[in-house]
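HUMAN: I'm a chemist; might I ask for a sequence paired with its structure tokens?

ASSISTANT:
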Amino acid sequence: MLAFPSTYTVGITSLGYQIVWATLAQRGDVDVRRLFTDQGDPPHGGSRSRGPDLDLFGLSLSWELDGPVLLDLLEQQRIPIWASERGDNDPIVFGGGPVLTANPEPLAPFFDVVLLGDGELLLPAFVDALQQHRSAPRAERLRQLARVPGVYVPSLYAPRYSSDGELLAVEPTEPGIPATVAKQTWRGNTLSHSTVITPEAAWPSIHMVEV
């Protein structure tokens, strides 16, 4: 499920959200549903109980004030708010967008995975790794995802402070986890553009192109 922290009119106008949704929807091994604060795709969109087949719950954050909406959407879908409280039967909650790429730490306790950078580059490798290890226990799935470039798994890192409280580093807590997570930048030779054109968008019936 791919959520947007606002109404359909606002969310469907977001080119970034459209790109992420289209990237997932074009895969034959993914059935992606959309969720907005006022509506969603069946069978789970707008429902207050998630289906048993919900493996992933994603959210794109463009503004700092989107953070509280994340918590509302998680509660609506009966997903534990804190990443540390989720078990093998809960979906992996991932996030991306400008806010998380700039500084994921304020919202890190609520995410299992944060994608740092552009979805065009990150999503294919992220989903490939998840599909390859989907039968593994949750902890092992997260370890494997942490090895994908640009994928930050907050639970596998811990801050190190000096004696006077200065932050010295954020370091992996297990062997084999990358010491740093580098932002991924899409440098493809195609322009990102609208995949959904609708009169219900904030800019009605407009085809958007990112240049």
In short: The beta strands are 2-3, 34-35, 56-60, 92-96, 113-115, 151-152, 157-161, 167-172. The helical segments are 8-11, 15-25, 67-76, 98-102, 119-132, 138-146.
